[in-house]
Here is the input.
Amino acid sequence: MSALLPVAEAQRRLLARAMPVAEETCPLAETAGRWAARDVAALRTQPASDLSSMDGYAIRFADLPGPWEVIGESAAGHGFGGGIGPGQALRIFTGAPLPPGADTVLVQEEAARDGSRLALAGEGPPHPGSSVRPRGLDFAQDDLLIRAGEAITPARIALAAIAGHAALPVRRKVRVALLSTGDELVPPGAPLGPDQIPETNRLLLAAQLAGLPVELIDLGILPDRQDVLEAAFRALDCDLLVTTGGASVGDHDLVRPALEAAGAAIDFWKIALRPGKPMMAGRLGDAAVLGLPGNPVSAFVTATLFVRPLVARLAGAADPLPRTRTVPLGEPLPATGPRADYLRAELIDGHARAATIQDSSMLRTLARATCLIVRPAGAPEAKTGDSAEILDIA
Ligand SMILES: Nc1nc2c(c(=O)[nH]1)N[C@H]1C(S)=C(S)[C@@H](COP(=O)(O)OP(=O)(O)OC[C@H]3O[C@@H](n4cnc5c(N)ncnc54)[C@H](O)[C@@H]3O)O[C@H]1N2
Ligand code: MOO
Here is the structure.
């Protein structure tokens, strides 16, 4: 048997081989959760002119301590249209353009006005430029604002809008086909015959992919029959095929032979990971293929570590791997074996505590867990209070 591939190496190989899907231009309102396909530069300077950041009076700092004559008004969207000279001031509002000649804003709380006469009624602005947003404070035209491969976050959508964009270059949605295999599997809610169980993994995976830019193709539940699986694989039309079940070494584990019969090239199979060891990765025509183990928790963990990052990479993400963080352990943990352990755990008062039984069939334990404790392969025993790496899952 070939050696088990370390998780990081498997992730590296998987992502290195993944080519992002084609580019498209997407209206800003539809870009949330996607990744920039190209660098995005500013089409304009922001602010385009010096603006007031407060409601008050535009003045010349040199004229302090006043008094001034108010000669007009500048509001956001309605500039004054002229400048001010010595001893003159302009009523001004937040976001309004500063008139030529003015360099400072006196906030209205520190001003006393009587008709067109304005006097200082407080300490006044501390320095020239007080309460003024100078032209280009945020960015200048042609500045690089979003790099290719960066996530389009809510803030970046707003940034692109104020930079003059109505749409952004992203990748089209990733077409992900999902398929479960197993003679025992019946759609949820359907009557169960002897030895049958409700099927969980297509729902689980679809929900895990819900936040990603995907178009799901449901290939259903297929029986443990190589000819049926092979026919489904031959008819494939997607960017990524994700199967669950039939990935191991039993007589009814037929995903690999069916994939190979359909012409797939298997890149790797079996990872130093618990749960999730028998995951396989390969290619079938233009599509990437991930064959996940059938145990629901194994499917969940491999989807977290491999499917989601691969979908993100196909969607153009430069940095698609999930981030871990470090917390203290709330109880001791035994040494790990040759596989990295991803333990279903809860954070209690900031301390991670693993569930007592870590069987990869146990969905109730998974559903209670808020994180996975990541224990590297070959890690020694850990004591209460030792630092542990966790991956948040809820
Ligand atoms: N002799 C060996 N046996 C097993 C090994 C091994 O190395 N040598 N590996 C074990 C590990 S680790 C895992 S994980 C499982 C994975 O096996 P398969 O991918 O072949 O999964 P199945 O046998 O098809 O199913 C396992 C288990 O999960 C249930 N299942 C499957 N699909 C679904 C689904 N869509 N919804 C709900 N439940 C599902 C299935 O009924 C089985 O109980 O293999 C070990 N065996
Ligand atoms: O790796 Mo299996 O995925 O232990 O349950």
